[in-house]
């Protein structure tokens, strides 16, 4: 396992980040502990969760697992999604962010998290309010590095501008979706991050299992049972790309999951892809991604299997000259 700098923080994180979304849900406590130990044994020191995951159980289980070696780890969590029935128990208001972080710290059994992401953009809360909430938490020592997930490039750049003008702690990390069939981040998000020296920790490198090949055989999984994932990855052309990718990997002796993670990881803007699993067997292929020698030539061949998104100006004809 190699380690990479996290933005401008000086902190070193493993080249893979372990996502704990399955903890307390698809993975019970025993399986969560096995996968946690496997990721630690592989050298991972970077863990990602959220207050919404399995109604807080993900944070609770992770908090138990890190006892005794908390200071060896970099932990990220998120807030925005509903944590209760109350109308204000959600969003990016200063009120909710402050209350949500206190809840996360209690469940994680820690005095701080290294990274706090705002999980989604909130149309009801002015960006200045949300950035001030992050600054308050940084000053209180409860959050070390502000971060954004699922925000556009312009929203992220606007947030950086607000922070710079106010003299507040800057965003250090973003978390976009990025994989072989979801490449929109290449157009503006990843270039923006590189220009600002912001770390990129993308989720869903395996496209919710689509790129594993299991759906080619009509197996059950999130794309079949979860309407959100079915809508996200339901386009026929995505499944066509997945079929070509799986055939390519089999022809090269590569595990599709490992190759999908390695493809994401080797984009120059990426710090650490988030991997996750429901069981040990699923996890191993992602952990083995670091063993794949993803040369520029191999990455270009894999990239050619998918659709390249048009540039921000939409003047793609100029790129073909």
- Report the CATH architecture of the domain at 3-175: Alpha-Beta Barrel
Straight-line distance between termini: 40 Å
Going across the biggest sheet, name each strand in turn.
9-8-7-6-5-4-3-10
**Number of E strands:** 10
Q: Which sheet architecture does the biggest sheet show?
A: 8 strands, parallel
Helix content: 25-40%
Rg over CA atoms, rounded to whole Å, is: 19 Å
List the helices and strands and how they pair.
Layout: E1 3-5, E2 12-14, E3 17-19, H1 29-41, E4 46-48, H2 57-65, E5 74-79, H3 94-108, E6 113-118, H4 127-140, E7 143-149, H5 153-166, E8 173-175, H6 189-196, E9 199-200, H7 222-225, H8 227-232, H9 236-252, H10 256-265, E10 274-275, H11 280-287, H12 296-303
Parallel strand pairs: 3-4, 3-10, 4-5, 5-6, 6-7, 7-8, 8-9
Antiparallel strand pairs: 1-2
Helix pairs in contact: 1-11, 2-3, 3-4, 4-5
Descriptive overview:
With 321 residues, the chain is of the alpha/beta class. It has a domain at 3-175: NADP-dependent oxidoreductase domain (TIM Barrel, Alpha-Beta Barrel), CATH 3.20.20.100. Helix content is 39%, strand content 12%. The chain is built from twelve helices and ten strands. The strands form two sheets. The chain has an eight-stranded parallel β-sheet. The chain is globular, with a radius of gyration of 19 Å. The model has no long low-confidence stretch (mean pLDDT 95).
């Amino acid at each position: 396992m190699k380690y990479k700098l996290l933005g401008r923080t000086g902190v070193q994180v493993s080249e893979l980040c372990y996502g704990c979304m399955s903890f307390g849900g698809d993975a019970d406590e025993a399986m969560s502990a096995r996968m946690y130990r496997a990721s630690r044994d592989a050298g991972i020191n970077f863990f990602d969760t959220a207050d919404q995951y399995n109604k807080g159980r993900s944070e609770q289980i992770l908090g138990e697992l890190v006892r005794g070696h908390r200071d060896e780890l970099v932990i990220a969590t998120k807030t925005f999604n509903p944590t209760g029935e109350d109308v204000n128990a959600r969003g990016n208001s200063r009120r909710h962010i402050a209350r949500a972080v206190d809840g996360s710290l209690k469940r994680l059994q820690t005095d701080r998290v290294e990274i706090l992401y705002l999980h989604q953009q909130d149309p009801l809360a002015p960006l200045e309010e949300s950035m001030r909430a992050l600054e308050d938490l940084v000053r209180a020592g409860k959050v070390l590095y502000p971060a954004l997930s699922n925000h556009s490039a312009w929203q992220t750049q606007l947030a950086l501008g607000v922070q710079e003008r106010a003299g507040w702690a800057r965003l250090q990390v973003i978390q976009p979706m990025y994989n072989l069939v979801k490449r929109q981040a290449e157009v503006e998000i990843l270039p923006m991050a590189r220009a600002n020296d912001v770390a990129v920790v993308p989720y869903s490198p395996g496209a919710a299992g689509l790129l594993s090949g299991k759906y080619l055989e009509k197996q059950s999984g999130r794309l079949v049972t979860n309407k959100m994932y079915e809508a996200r990855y339901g386009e026929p052309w995505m499944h066509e790309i997945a079929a070509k990718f799986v055939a390519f990997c089999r022809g090269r002796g590569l595990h599709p999951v490992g190759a999908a993670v390695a493809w994401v990881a080797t984009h120059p803007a990426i710090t650490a892809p988030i991997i996750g699993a429901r069981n040990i067997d699923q996890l191993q292929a992602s952990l083995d991604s670091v063993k794949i020698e993803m040369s520029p030539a191999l990455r270009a061949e894999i990239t050619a299997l998918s659709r390249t998104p048009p540039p921000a100006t939409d003047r793609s004809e100029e790129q073909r000259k």
